[in-house]
Each structure stands twice: as C-alpha cells, then as structure tokens.
Amino acid sequence: MQMNIDFQGRHVFVFGGTTGINFGIAQAFGRCGARVSVASRQRENVDAALATFAAQGAQAQGLCADVRDFDAVGAAFQDAARRFGPIDVLVSGAAGNFLCTANAMSANGFRTVVDIDLCGTFNVLRQAYAHLRKPGASLINITAPQATVPMRSQAHAAAAKAGIDQLTRVLALEWGADGIRVNAISPGPIDGTEGFRRLIARTEEELVLARSAVPLGRFGTSDDIANLALFLASPHASYISGAVVPCDGGGALESVKPALERTALQP
Q1: Cα–Cα distances in Å, from 129 out to 1, 88, 93, 159, 182?
Q2: The pTM is what?
Q3: Is the confidence at residue 255, as pLDDT, over 70?
Q4: Could you give the CA distance from residue 37 to residue 59 in angstroms, rounded to a whole number?
C-alpha cells in the first residue's frame, strides 16, 4: 500500500507546540492539511507561531495555558474543540530541564521539572480525554532518552521522563477499548532547539563528543521527529499502541556498548 499521509479535515492539538520540536511537529501536520491547535504558557510564543501558520496558509488557532494548571488545561481543550471539533491527534510535549547534579539540586528545582514534564503530561492527557474522537484518536507523548539511559545532572528529568514512558503504556492499556492509541517519541539530540543549545552544544568540545556518540554520525532535525509523529498518527500505524519509539540515530545504543563489550570479553 502506498504511504499517503493526509490529515485533511482532522483536528491536531500540540501542547507546547509553539517552539522547538513541538512547533516543527505542528507545522508538519498543518502542511498535511490538519486544523492545528497549539498551546503554550507564553502569549508571545503563541502569537509568533500563529503568524508563521498564517504565512504558510495553515488553519490554526492558539491558546494560552500552563500544563501545571489542570483547570487551565481543561479550558484550553474546551475552547479548541468548540472551534475545530473533536481532537483526532494530540501531541503532549511541554517540558522543562536544566543541568544540575542531585546533591546540588533544591527540592523545588526537582519538583518543578516533574510538575511540568510528568504531572503536566497527565493533566494534558486527562483533560483531553473528553474531547478525543472515539474511536480513532492518536496520542503522542514526547519523552527523552533519560527515561532509560542514566545521565549525570539529569535526576529530575530522568525521573519525569521515566514516568511519562510508563504513563504512555498504562493509558494504552486503559484507553485501547475506546479505540485510542497512545505512543511516545524519544528524540535524541535535535539540532537547532533550545534544549540542544543549553544541554548539549555549550562548547565545541561537547558538540564533537555528542556527535561521536551517535552511530549515524549526525544530529537529528525537527523534521526527523515530525515525520515520525505523522507516521504514528496516521492509519499506517493503526496497530501500534503503547510503544516508546526512539528517534536518536541509534544514540541510546551507545550507552550499553561498554557493558556489552566487557561481557563479550569474558570467557
């Protein structure tokens, strides 16, 4: 069967969809004909995203809500559904992160990242449920390699992302009977994003080291993640649910290579 990705007439909601990877995902769905709703905490980011959508000829609306505010998230979904109808595709991608070792991190710093990433993801999915097309909706969470690959200075993000991975699997179990698919994408280092600049490419030395850890030898792009999201949300992935899909050029495999090499050397 020919791969034809068409979201004409579909309502796609991207929470956190005004910047970075999530904005790239939202734009890709807009190019495929979807009616796109994006939400962000900052009004200026929403306005800038809508200006870009208008220039591209996409049908889009923007809303303001902080994922940590359960009621505000619910109001955003009500407003979006009122104009664009039931939600066919939901991408939950709001996130926060910073580098800090555990013994230097405050309780508030740890809690803030968990509140945004994990509790925020729950708030988005839970409040969206009433507005999802049933059967047929596709939910995609944005997680990260820290969920399964221990990384220094990432205790807060690792704990939050591990929770998102399990939340993805549990909701795939619970909501499957409604015909709702729930999956997650785990991006590797994506060039041009704020997280890439703040966490990976702070120095030329770090940049070279990070690239050398990717078996494919290059950093990812927003299009790499957007293309995967389009596939997971499409009928071509209609039997995929509960999956956490890495899109990292094989980078997560490098974390287990030393252990495997040591095992291979043992008699």
Answers
A1: 31, 11, 16, 25, 12
A2: 0.91
A3: no
A4: 9
